[in-house]
Amino acid sequence: KVSKASKSSKSKGKRRRRRSKSKGSSKETSKGTSKGKSAKSSGVVDPTPTYKRTTIIKKRCKRENACNTAMLNNPTQCNPLSPSPVCVSCCTGRRCNFALPSNLPYPVNRKKRAATSIYDHWNNEEFIVADDKPAYWNGTVPTCNDVEPPVFTHCPKELNATLTLNGPLPVDFVVPTATDNSGITPTITSIPAGIQPPYVFEQDGYVVYVATDSAGNQANCTIKINHLDGIPPRVQCPQEKVVDLHNTTSFVVPARFPDVIATDNVGVVRVVYDPPNGTIVQMRRYLTVTVTAYDEAGNQGACSFNYEAIPAGCPEWSLQKPENGDRSCSATIGGATGTGFSCNVRCPRYTDFVTDPALQYICVFGGTWEPHNYVPDCTNQLFPGYALDYFLQIDTGGPVDMTCLELYMNATRDALLPILDSNLCDPYAKNFAVNIERLTATVEGSVITISLRVLITVVDTTGISPNFVAWCGTQISTAVQAFNPGGNFVIVINSGSCPDGTVQPPVTEENKEYVCPAGHIFRGSQQAGGYCLMCLMGTYANQTTNECIPCPKGQYNDEKGLPECKACPEGTSTLDVYSRNVSECIPMCNPGEYSSNTLQPCDQCAIGFYQPQLGSTQCIQCPDEKQTATVGSTALSQCRDVCIAGTISSDGLSPCEECPLHFYMPDSGATACIECPADKITEKTGSFSNTSCVDGNFCDDHMCQNNATCVDRGRYYTCTCPAGFTGVMCQTNMDECAPEPCMNGATCIDGINSYTCKCAPGYEGANCEEITDNCDPSPCVNGQCINGINSFKCNCIPGYHGERCDDKIDECDPQPCQNGGQCLDLLNFYLCNCSNTGYDGRNCTDKIDECLPEPCLNGATCTDLLMDVNCTCPPGYEGKYCGTE
C-alpha cells in the first residue's frame, strides 16, 4: 500500500536576511506490505523562479499657476490641467545634465533614459524605468551649443546732431554695450566701421552696432541719426531810429513798423513784432521795438530798433504848451493846403520863462514849426537874496600856528553877529534872515586875514518888493564897515598857544550882489534888481553863467531846481539832451557792438572787427588780415590768424591742426577736412589737394596680433581674429573659463579657444559633469553595481551578500529544519529533508499521520505512532496491520 503524502507546514522561524517567498516542498508515498514496512518521504526542488525589478523615479509636477519654476539646470514646465498635465524636461544653458536618483546605475557616458510615465491623482509623475529588466541607457551623449545671441544693455534709439553755420557739431555719445549668457563680453563693431564718439555725422541715416559672442551669435543695435537745425534765423533791423510821419491831427496813431529782413538756412516760419504792428502809440514818444523770427526747428533770432511817430505837418497840439503857461494860436493862410497856425506863448504874472521862447511860432501843413518847436515852461518868480563879501585882518603880534585859525574865525563870527542881529533893517527886519557864511582864514607872519559873506535872505514877502533886500543890505554894509572905528578891537581867543589879536581897520567890502538859491538863476540886473527862476526838469542851474543848462547826454533831472543833473545808471545813456526821467536812460552798446548813437539797439561787430569799449559808434578792424571767430568780438586778442590750406580748427582760426591721414582741405579758414574716397589714402597729414588721395594698403604694416587676418578697408584696416582671441587688434585671449563650464567643483584651466576641466575626485567628462563609473568593470560578483560619487554600491541578487556580493548566504544558518530533518542549502533557498523523521512540511514541523491512508486492515483500529502505527485487530485477525486471519 502507498501511504498518503504528509501535510506540509510553514516554518515560523525568523531569518537574518531577506529571503525569497518561494517554497520548497516534499512529498512522501508509502506502500502497505505484508511485511509492514513503511515508506520514506522524499523532497523535490521547484524550477528556478523569475525575478522582477521595477525602478520608479518620482518627480512632482507643480500646479499650473506655480509652474515654470526653474529646477537646477532643468526647468520643469506644465501644460494646462485639462487634459492631464505633462511634465517636460528641458535642457537649457550649457550645463544641462539632470541628476538621477542615487539608486539607479550611473553610466560612464550620460545618455537619455528610456522611461514611460504615469500620473497619480495629485499629478505626481512616476517614470517607470526598465520594467522586468535592469535599468539601461540609450541614445547619444547630449551636447549643449550656445545659440543665444548677446543682449544689448545700452542701445539708444536715435542720436541728434546739431547743425551750425560751420556744419554739424560732433556728437558725444556712449557706445552701445551688450552682455552674453556665456559671461564673456561680446565684441562690438559698427556699420559703417569706426564710429566712435565724438563723431561728426555728415547726414541723416542709420548706424548699426553689432555684438558678436564667442560662439558667433550676433545681435544688432540700430541707431537713427537725426540732424537738428541749430542755426537761428538772421534778422536785420534798421540801425537808425525809425521816424514815422503821420498826416493827421490826432495825438495818437497806430504804429506802422517797417518790414525787417529775416533769413534762415531752412526757412523762416513766422516773424513777431513786440509790441505788435498797429499798436496805438502817442505822437512824439519813442519806443523800442523787438522783432523775433522763428524757424521750423524753433530756433529764434531777434533784433531791435527805435521808433517814433511824428506828425507830417504841424497840428496845434504838436507845439508843446508851456507848463504853468498859455499857448494861443490862430489860423494862417499859406502853404500847399492853404492852412496852418501862428502861435504865441506867455507866462502869467509872477512867473516867467527860464529861457526865452520864440516871439512867434509859425507852421503851415506840409512843413514844420518855425523857427523851432521848443517851448520852455513857466516857473514862479522868487525873491532874490543879497550877499555882501568882506575881509578883515587881525594882528597877533607874533607867529600863529595853523591850528589856531579855526579859533580866530569863530571869534570873528561871534564879534559880528551882535551887529547883524541889531534890527538894522527895521521896520522890515522880520522879513529877512541874516547869516554869515563862507568864512575862511589865512595867515602870513603875525597877520591873519579872514574872508566872509553876509547873506540876507527873504523869509517873508509880506509888504515888500524884491528890491527891499538890497536896501537891507545897504543898512548892514554901513554897520559892518563902522565896526572897530578906532582900530583897537581885540579878538580874545582864551588859548595859551593861540595869542589874542587886534582887528586892523578898515573892514573892507569886496562885493555885493543879488543872489539866488542853488538850482535857480537870477533874472534882472544888479542895479535895478530882479527875481529868481527855478531851473526846470531836464536842466540844471549853472550859477557861474547864470543859466539853466540842458542835462547833457547820459544825464537827466526828474526834479526842478537842482544845481546839477543826475547820471544815468551805469551802462546806459540818453538819446538827447533835456532828459527828464531815468526811463529815458537807454542801455548803451556793449563791447563788441556799435550804433550810430551809441545806444541800443546795436549791431555786433562783423567778423574781422572788434570793439572793447562801451557805447561805441563803430568797430575796429583786425590788423594784418587777421579774423575773428564770431561776430561781436571785444578784444584785439580775439583777432587770430586764419588756418591755411591743409589745416583746420573748430572755428577756422589759429591754433590750427593739420588734416589727418586720408583727409585734405584746399581752402583756408576751414573747420573740417574733406575725406578721401573710400579706397584712397594720404601718405602724410596736412594734405591740401585731392591729388594727395592715392591707392594704399594698410595691411602692409598692420598691427594685428595672434595670427589674425588683416582686412584692408581702404583708409583703415580691421583684424579678423582667430578662434579664441578678441579685441581690436585680436590682442586679448578670450577667457573660455568665464562662463564657468566646469561642474561639480572642478578647476577650469583656460586655453586658446579651449579650456580644460580638472575634475574633483569622483567626476569625469569634458566638463566633469559625469560621475566616474566605478562599476566598470563591475566589482559586484553576484549583483548589480550602483555607481556613486567616488564610490559604488552592490545590489546583490537574492542569495548573496557582502560588499561585492561574493558571499553566498547560508540558507541553513540558523537551522530551519526541525525534528531531525536535514537542511539542503540552495541559492536564496533551502530544502528540509524530513526522511526517517516522522515529520514533513517546509521545516519538518508537521507530524506525519501514519494512520493515513488507513494502513490497518480488516477493520482494525489504527493508532498513530512516530514513524509507525499500532493496529488493534478485530477478532479473527492478527499481524502488524491485522492482515492475517
UniProtKB/TrEMBL annotation:
InterPro entries membership: EGF, EGF-like_Ca-bd_dom, EGF-like_CS, EGF-type_Asp/Asn_hydroxyl_site, EGF_Ca-bd_CS, Growth_fac_rcpt_cys_sf, HYR_dom, Tyr-kin_ephrin_A/B_rcpt-like
UniProt GO cellular component terms: cell periphery; extracellular region; membrane; plasma membrane bounded cell projection
GO terms of molecular function: calcium ion binding; Notch binding
Keyword Transmembrane helix belongs to the record: yes
Compositional bias per record (Basic residues), positions renumbered to this chain: 1-24
Domain HYR: 145-229, 230-311
Subcellular location(s) per record: Membrane; Secreted
Pfam families for the chain: EGF (PF00008), Ephrin_rec_like (PF07699), hEGF (PF12661), HYR (PF02494)
Region span, Disordered: 1-49
Disulfide bond residue pairs: 721-730, 759-768, 775-785, 796-805, 873-882
Record's compositionally biased regions (Low complexity): 31-49
Name this protein carries in UniProt: Uncharacterized protein
